[in-house]
Amino acid sequence: MTDTVPVEYWHGLPNGRLQCDLCPRACTLTDGQRGLCFVRRRDGEHMVLTTYGRSSGFCIDPIEKKPLNHFLPGTPILSFGTAGCNLACRFCQNWDISKSRETDTLCDSAGPQKIAETARNMGCTSVAFTYNDPVIFHEYAVDIAVACHEIGIKSVAVTAGYVCPEPRAEFFRHMDAANVDLKGFSETFYNQACAASLAPVLDTLSYLKHETDVWFELTTLLIPGQNDSDRELDEMTAWVVENLGRDVPMHFTAFHPDYKMRDIPHTPPETLSRARQVAINNGVRYAYVGNVHDKAGDSTYCHECGICLVGRDWYVLSDWNLTDDGHCNGCGASCAGVFNGPPGKWGAKRQPVRLAS
After folding, report:
1. Do residues 156 and 174 make contact, with C-beta atoms less than 8 angstroms apart?
2. How far is it, in rounded angstroms, from Cα 165 to Cα 149?
C-alpha cells in the first residue's frame, strides 16, 4: 500500500486551486489532482506525497556509477528511487521508472531507519537517491538522510536540480554529495526536450557552489544533433569554469535511443572525446566520458604534473596515486574531492537488495 504523508511547499490561490511550490513548474491543482511529477497530489485543502516509504527497488552499486569520481572512490552505495519525475525529458534513459504512472512499480517498501540500517549492515558508506529525481520525494529523502547521518552513512542526490529556492535549501542541507544532470546549455533545448527551463538549474548549481558544502559533479548526456555542438559545449564549459570553478568534475555520457527519441542514433565515442577536450581547453580540470569503454577518458589526472591519480576501467579502479587525504603522490598537488583513506574495493559489482519494513 502506498503511504501518503502531508507536505509543505504549497499555497492556496484565489481561484480555489492549490499551487505546489516545490519546483519551478508550479502546478496548480484541484482536489484529487496530481502534479506533473505524479507523486505530489492535492488532498482536500492540503498537499500530500503519495510515495513515502515506497521504492521501485534497491541495489548496491559502485559510487562511480552515479557518476561520482571524486567522492569516496571505490566504495559501495545503496541506491534506490521511487516513481515519477518533475521533468518531461523526451530522451529519458530511465523512463520506465521516472514516467511510471503505476503504483505497482513501487514493489519494495522501507522506512528511513530500515534503509539506513541496511546500508550499514551491507557495508555501504552512502545511500543514493537516484533512478528518478529525489526532489519530488523531498520529505522521504530528507528523513532517510537524517537517519543515515545518525549512524555515519552519507547521503547522495542524483538530480536535475529543478527545484525552488526554499525547498532546495532544506533538501541540500541534508546531502553530502550530488550529481546534477545539466541536460544542455540552451533554453530552447530545455524547453523543447525537457519541458523545463535552464535558468533554475544554473541557479541551483551556483547555490551548491557558493552557499553549501555539498560535493557535486555534473553530467551531460550528449544527444547527436541536439545538445552536442561545439558552440554549446564551449559555452557550457566556459560557464562552469567562470561560475563554479575549475575543480567541478564534468561527465559527458553517451545517449542511446529510448523513450520518445528512438529515431536518434547512439552518441559516437568521438563526440564524447571532443566534449571532454573542449572542457579541458576551457580550464576544466576533471573531465570524463561515460557509457563507453574509455580508460583514458574515465581516469583522473593531476592538474599540476599530469600523472594518473586514479585509473578506471569502467567501474574498476586500477592506478591509485593519491595520499589518504587526496594529494598527488608525485608532486603533492591537491586533487579536489572527498577522500578518506585508501580507496574502496567494491569494483563493478551490482547487487540487488530486497527490503521490507
Report:
1. no
2. 23
Question: Tell me, what DSSP letter sits at residue 72?
Answer: S
User: Who's near 329: CB < 8 A, 6+ residues apart?
Assistant: 307, 321, 322, 323
Q: Which fold has domain 54-297?
A: TIM Barrel (3.20.20)
State the amino acid at position 265 in one-letter form. Answer: P
Peptide bond preceding 67 in cis form (omega within 30 of 0)? yes
Q: Note the pLDDT tens digit of each residue in 88-126.
A: 998 886 655 545 454 444 556 789 999 999 999 999 999
Buried-state track 306-315, b at ≥16 Cβ within 10 A, e below 16: eebbbbbeeb
DSSP string spanning 256-312? --BTTBTTSPPPPHHHHHHHHHHHHHTT-S-EEEESS--TGGGSEE-TTT--EEEEE
User: What are the sequence ranges of the domains in the chain?
Assistant: 3-50, 54-297, 299-336
**Alpha carbon 67 to chain centroid, angstroms:** 8
What CA dihedral angle connects 72, 78, 83 and 87, to 10 degrees? 10
Q: Give tens-digit pLDDT for 158-190.
A: 999 999 999 999 999 999 999 999 999 999 999
Written as nine digits, the cell of 37 is 511529477
